[in-house]
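Notes from the pairing session

We agreed to fold both candidates in a single pass and log them together. This is the raw record for the first candidate, unedited. Please don't reformat it; downstream parsing expects exactly this layout.

Candidate A
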Amino acid sequence: MPVLVDHEKTRDQIAELACAIVAREGLHSLTMRRIAAEAGTSRAIVSTYFRDMRDLVLATFQWVASQQAQQFEAAQANGLGLAGCVEALLPLDHRRLDGWRVTIAFLGYAVADEELARIERERIDSAVLRFERLLVQESGLPRPSAATRREAQRIVSCLLGVAVDYSFDPTAQAQPRMRAAMVARVLGGRQA
């Protein structure tokens, strides 16, 4: 009987391994040979799941983006509000720090690739929309307004900046008092 393999699940598992490599050593350390060694398989097997390095890098970034979206949604579902949703995305533990390091590496990679830049723009737009919906919900407004859109854009821009800043200061994420400071920087004095 043939072995059934869940193609998407295997791609996600490999992308998760790639995330760890990129977060620890940078994008330049990610090769098909290296990922095969980490996965305990052959390069030929990895090549059945990814056309080329670009495909692997994109899958790795998309895996991280999916994890970040799930973190936001979990915080929202748990009723943690605006501050809790911001905190869920900040690099406050090793897993989230790794995700931000992959995101930063991807941004550098996407600069010279129109399609990858478009994918990043769509991810940012999606984050703005999530925060806009949350702002509308928390304020009791019947629908989004230009003001809620601008505020959501400001929050996402600040979130990106703070996440990048703290991704290069790993001692900060280990300090419990930094959680509140990071959230406050993103929310810019807005009451959480």
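Candidate B (folded immediately after A)
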Amino acid sequence: MGIIIGQCGLCKNQKPLLESHLIPKSLYKIVVSKSLSMSPVLIKGGKENVFVKTSNQVKSHFLCCSCEGILSKHGENHVLGYTYRNASKFKMQEILKGMRPEFEMDNSLVFSGNKILKIKISHFVHFAAGVFWKASAGKWNFLRTKLSNNQLGKKYEKQFREFLLGVSQFPEKAVLTMSVSNEKEPFPIVILPQYYKYDGYFQHRFYIPGIEFILWVGNLVPESQKNISISHAAGGAFFFECSDNSPLIRETKGYLKNNVGKLRKVTKPA
């Protein structure tokens, strides 16, 4: 395929577009190498859920080289070093196990972000914002299934795009939190951004091996959530808990349990 020229989704300039990945491609290698029999990557889009074991990735000609570099430098490169790799290598978990939590809440240990000195919280914020924004602003297809986009809405897409470019602060009406699995072998799967509608706000979630990011967006986001946002100047709160505490993980495990014989294995490019 020749060079594709188009409008970059982030900087909005006409440039050669790279084949962008919705989720960093290195994460797929981790997932496909793990257990759960079919080692699924979860894709949710169109009329049904699609679970597959595949080396294929969700990608699209969406960003220019410079903007891909922005996402890598300010988020992806740092965060990927802290995700679950295997039973003896999960750096984020190792750090939290060596710290004293602030308190316990609903079967979760809660840590203050500004006391986790070994990580760059701003990079976790940028990484999560980048994935949520790409899922909303881009046009993604996988296995002939069109993935839902515009999840954030045009107003918040613009605000997150400007944040990622470094020209504005994290959106005022958004709260971002993060949950780290305390399990020896966390759920080895990638779950692309999903969203749930509540009265006055939306909740968005995605999961990479060992870490879940949760984003609340809207005018009526509960006040109780605002002070725990990892985008907050105080560093917010990190939750250390069993992944089954997450409704997204429970829903996924339930689907896998009921449909394991129906999972598809795909090895050729889609």
